[in-house]
Design a protein that fits this description.
Alpha-D-Glucose-1,6-Bisphosphate, Chain A, domain 3; globular; binds zinc ion; alpha/beta; 19% strand; binds 2-acetamido-2-deoxy-6-O-phosphono-alpha-D-glucopyranose; five-stranded mixed beta sheet; 19 strands; 18 helices; 522 residues
């Protein structure tokens, strides 16, 4: 069968009137029913990206993560499982808003010197949203104008990243969902055997009524015992509602359907299972263990293993402005690990983390992973010693690089990495929560006329525009003990965010509220 031309295929996916689309921090994201033409066009772009890279496999993921059920979104994944390079983001926006698609495609083809005949495979996945199946068909329609599409149906976002990488790099793993499961389970079980752990890893996970629920069920084994709550993917209106990582982190409280036993660890995924947070209760008091805690737990665990293995490696932790000031202090002063700051969004953190042998990056919201350099992995694999303790640490490190998703933050991988770090160090969740105390903090959302008027510098910690505003914030902050506050435009919503922290909860709330007042004229 001959391929449809761009104009024939595109006529099936008309652009809605009076809507502008922008490829933001996490791709396109808006009401799902508005996205058909955009997803079709992203399909076209993904096959152009494949052609540009000589036929490498590219990915398209249809998801709106932790957003409400009626939203949806789409993003493009590059061959090694990384985000679409920022240089290509304007092309995505150009195509999504184009009124003359053929001309705009021709323009991109000419500018990037693309031979469209080179377009190869694009793998596609979606989360569990109602608009997913229709958008998946739109993506396939777009991809098939120039390239080939392979749909994997429902997937977590990190599984899609894994599949893209394994299609291009067979050593990374078998290019199937089963390959993803096998890689994680066998590495987790081997680590448990190395450390002689007999009791299975156990935890209850709130899956946000999203795709993480069915995927977690594929991962049980004799040594893995996970109970899943909020697993109703049939009720499309339940996704992320009163549950999930974003709900728990933002409201600092338990999700629906978790009735905790004191001192027992629980965790929440977000709707596409790329974020995870943990928590427990202590005399019924809720204690959150967020991305900052995950970063410090994993970094100190890996450091200990490096010491046992007698391997030297340079490690860095990457945070964003949202990281609690006390976590940064603990990392620098107690763990003695350098900290870098980048703007919000995985693409920024990921690239910074690649500068280290071991780059640990987590956003406070629970999105993150640990990257091990190829050089270090081969050194770990080729080092052997006669000391059983050193050998065990070496093997554990190598296996950890397989448990932890090297392409992107992954709730499932991060869950196992955390459970292993706790079990092997004989550390309880209460010990973990006591690693450091946290400064009271609060997040505000302020709707302004034009969020793009807010321009930041210094990893979003300071405003350069509107002129004069930062000086006023500085003057307020100076009045509070350990006060810190920043204002940044959201990359996913039409609003600006205000984060405040201070030595006391009252001061933190007061500081945040006063900075919000400063925003009233805007
Ligand atoms: C996106 C980002 C997430 C970030 C969030 C911030 C990716 C894959 N996702 O969801 O990392 O925390 O945006 O949202 O990069 P905001 O700009 O609306 O505050
Ligand atoms: Zn997500």
């Amino acid at each position: 069968m001959s391929k449809d031309t761009l104009s024939t295929a595109s006529a099936r996916h008309p652009k809605p009137p009076n809507t502008t689309f922008a490829y933001g921090t996490a791709g396109f994201r808006t009401i799902g029913s508005l996205l058909d033409s955009t997803v079709f066009r992203v399909g076209v772009l993904a096959s152009l990206r494949s052609a540009k890279l000589g036929g490498k496999t590219i990915g398209v993921m249809i998801t709106a993560s932790h957003n409400p059920p009626q939203d949806n979104g789409v993003k493009v994944v590059d061959p090694l499982g990384e985000m679409l390079p920022q240089l290509w983001e304007p092309y995505a926006t150009q195509l999504a808003n184009s009124d003359n698609l053929e001309d705009d495609v021709r323009d991109i083809v000419a500018r990037e010197k693309i031979d469209v005949a080179q377009a190869g495979l694009v793998v596609v996945g979606m989360d569990t949203r109602e608009t997913g199946p229709q958008l998946l068909r739109a993506a396939i329609d777009g991809i098939e104008v120039f390239g080939r599409a392979k749909s994997f149906g429902e997937l977590t976002t990190p599984q899609l990243h894994y599949l893209v990488r394994s299609h291009n790099d067979p050593e990374f793993g078998e290019p199937s969902e089963n390959g993803y499961n096998k890689k994680i389970i066998s590495a987790v079980e081997e680590i448990l055997r190395l450390w002689n752990v007999q009791e299975p890893l156990e935890i209850t996970v709130d899956a946000a009524n999203g795709v993480g629920a069915p995927k977690l069920r594929n991962l049980s084994s004799d040594l893995i015992n996970i109970s899943v709550v909020n697993s109703n993917t049939q009720d499309k209106s339940a996704l992320n509602v009163e549950c999930g990582a974003d709900y728990v982190k933002t409201n600092q409280k338990l999700p629906a359907n978790v009735q905790p036993r004191d001192h027992q660890l629980y965790s929440s995924f977000d709707g596409d299972a790329d974020r995870v947070v943990f928590y427990y209760t202590d005399e019924s008091r809720f204690q959150l263990l967020d991305g900052d805690r995950i970063a410090t737990l994993l970094a100190s665990f890996i450091n200990k293993l490096l010491q046992q293995a007698k391997v030297k490696a340079n490690m860095g932790i990457i945070q964003t402005a949202y990281a609690n000031g006390d976590s940064t202090k603990y990392i620098q002063e107690t763990l003695q690990i350098p900290v870098d700051f980048t703007p919000t969004g995985v693409k920024h953190l990921h690239h910074k983390a690649q500068e280290y042998d071991i780059g640990v990056y987590f956003e406070a919201n629970g999105h993150g992973t640990v990257l091990f350099s190829e050089k270090l992995i081969s050194e770990l694999k080729s080092t052997h010693t006669s000391s059983p303790e050193e050998e065990r640490a070496l093997k554990t490190l190598v296996l950890l690089t397989e448990v932890i998703n090297q392409t992107v933050g992954d709730s499932i991988s991060d869950l196992f990495a955390v459970l292993l770090a706790l079990r092997i160090q004989n550390k309880t969740c209460v010990d973990w929560g006591k690693d450091y105390t946290e400064l009271p903090n609060k997040l505000f959302k302020v709707v302004v006329k034009d969020r793009f008027a807010f321009k930041t510098t210094d990893a979003e910690r300071r405003l350069v525009e509107p002129a004069g505003l930062q000086a006023k914030i500085d003057a307020l902050v100076a009045a509070y003990a350990r006060g810190r506050c920043f204002v940044r435009a959201s990359g996913t919503e039409n609003a600006v965010r205000v984060y405040s922290e201070a030595a006391s909860a009252a001061d933190c709330a007061d500081l945040g509220a006063r900075v919000c007042e400063l925003l009233e004229p805007y």
